[in-house]
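Form 7-S
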Amino acid sequence: MEKYNKTVGNFGEEMATKYIEKQHYKILDRNFNTRLGELDIVALNKDCLCFIEVKTRTTDKYGKPMDAVNYVKRNHLINAAKIYITKNKLINYKARFDIVEVFVKKDDNNFEVEKINLIKNAFMC
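Output:
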């Protein structure tokens, strides 16, 4: 099951990256790892530094994908973002946290995107 979830997640991140590029985001980094957690995508949108969490689901049986970004997850993202900002000397940028929900279905052995939902300013620091 873990390998399947990783495969679905990787597919979702690829699709989310393509989607936000079409929304005029400039990708700066992907899968930035810290001891406090991982940032899926770091991008610029106009003059704003965006930390983007991607949640991919094949079903809404357990709720919306954005619901998985709970209090604990948000704190990990905020702390990882602080490390990213410091490490890359980006202190002068405004920053925000976005979530991209990717809904997929499995067709034979391939995944197909049903819908992508971008939630800007999904939560605050």
